[in-house]
Amino acid sequence: MSTPKKAIQKMPVKKIVSKLPIKKSAVHSRDAAKEEGGLPLSVVIRRRIEAQKARFHANDNISAFIKPGELEGLVDEVAEKMQAVLESLVIDTENDHNTQNTSRRVAKMYVQEVFNGRYVDQPTLTKFPNVSRLNELMIIGPITVRSACSHHLCPIMGRIWIGVLPSKESALIGLSKYSRLTEWVMCRPQIQEEAVVELADMLEKKIKPIGVAVVMDADHFCMQWRGVKDRDSKMINSVMRGAFLKDSNLRREFLALIDRK
After folding, report:
1. How far is CA 170 from the centre of its chain?
2. Nearest one of 212, 115, 221 to 167, comparing CA atoms
3. CA nearest 120: which of 193, 185, 172?
4. Do the beta carbons of residue 258 and residue 215 sit within 8 Å?
5. Can you tell me the distance from the alpha carbon of 261 to that of 169, in angstroms, rounded to the nearest whole number?
6. β-pairing, 189-190 with 138-149?
7. Residue 147 is inside which H or E element, if any?
8. CB atoms inside a 10 Å sphere around CB 108
9. Per-residue model confidence as pLDDT tens digits over 120-165
10. Three-state DSSP string of 176-188
């Protein structure tokens, strides 16, 4: 016996979307978008980026194009669109207590946490002069990293080790700054191979060492959770720069020391 259409169509999507709570802090950004032709905030931000001919791939930082207060407005917009996704998945969010407000929780998770490295400025890195003229191998790690595969938005969970061989003229940064910079780079949708290269590039630019090395070991849920569903596969890759690339003894020392951890 077929179910009458009226029993299925309990409430139009627009009415459900309108019930999503909107924080007062987002009102300013909404008003700013209206001033630019009533366009969605994401379109306004996109046009700013395109006007500067800048790139905005999944693993790019676009904080320079986001004005104060606009991230809350972006959460509102993502929440509305996420609500439409839930409706298209045929989930009764009106009556299912477990998925009520899920759209906003997911929106906040993506914008404020999982992909936060796209939307906020690079953390401040206080640099210190190398007064003692240190030039010995330093290893930082393992640093716990959490990222997401840009192909399926599935989690990437792993660890990173950083090796630095400073010169007498190199700048030094506090240990916590390595973790903060790593988290900032990793909190974006991306592939692991590109993420470690970007981190190595930033460390070279900030510290100007004789050599820098980055090794990442991670589980990819796009392999474990879907697809081949291979629970034991990991991805390990490394980037060697300067002395780590040229000096095989230094490279072996670094790899031997992180293997003990």
Report:
1. 28
2. 212
3. 185
4. yes
5. 30
6. parallel
7. strand 138-149
8. 16
9. 999 988 888 776 777 889 999 999 999 999 999 999 999 999 999 9
10. HHHHHHHHHHHCC
